[in-house]
């Protein structure tokens, strides 16, 4: 009996030791894991949304995001995606935005490539009082389609799909079209558009289109496992691109080919601008895209990719527009399209250095005559407001 009691007490003591160790380990992990932080308030989002809406939303029955400050009014599918994301996310901050979202949805529907192919035409310009696409503009840009599809999913989750528009059906139709027309069948990565089917374009990739968070959501929302493969390959490509340079910076465009996702570089002016091979006006969105995946999934891989980029920016005296991949600043000018995604990413991943260095980057006044930085600024503000919720 004495031996049994000794063994019983030894067992109890061992169990207590294990429980204490687990508790200490959990406490240490939570202490070491930097908390995501944001000071963004509903009041700030309301104020900025009103400013952004007044400056950039146009139209009555249907609405679009104005991308030009001079000349004929113009918009892009990219802008429509941003506008729809901003508007549906603003609804989480005591703003009644469904009517506006429906107006933006109506514009998207009017400018699909066709009823059978719901990808959006990439650009429209006002002509004779109507927003129209020229024949060479009736092709798609994948980034805009991805944002529109994701915004429709958020709308379904926010308001349901029994109202004026069945957001769920529209989202699934668009996601299906993206899969059919805008995903490379070999690499399982996004094409830059449905037009990119030739030998010289089919392997082009905009790294900012590697929206792992979206692809995870598409998989669960549609119950289509092929999107999991797209998410996995996107993350693998991002890892390879991050490892390619000490800065962790990535270019506006690269090539990715074959089942092993072999990386290649593009040269200046090969695709869209003299900065195609630099961290420029497409690539500046990468910190936000990857940090958003970490915010939603807590992916360690996504966090590591973002942290490497943020480490580079902590070493800069200020964030400016456009860098070579080795980290040389190409301009001396600051631009909110570059600054605000980095600040949002810092908040989402708990980088206190950058969060404290740029405390007013998101709360500063919205620019009223420069669509791209102003709209990315607005989007980063509403996404910042989602941290921790």
Automatic annotation (TrEMBL):
One MF term in the entry's GO annotations: hydrolase activity, hydrolyzing O-glycosyl compounds
Entry keyword Hydrolase: yes
rRNA-binding among keywords: no
Active site: 143 (nucleophile)
Record's keyword terms, sorted: Carbohydrate metabolism, Glycosidase, Hydrolase, Polysaccharide degradation, Signal
E.C. code: 3.2.1.-
GO biological processes: polysaccharide catabolic process
Family of this protein: Belongs to the glycosyl hydrolase 8 (cellulase D) family.
This protein's name: Glucanase
Organism encoding this protein: Lactiplantibacillus fabifermentans DSM 21115
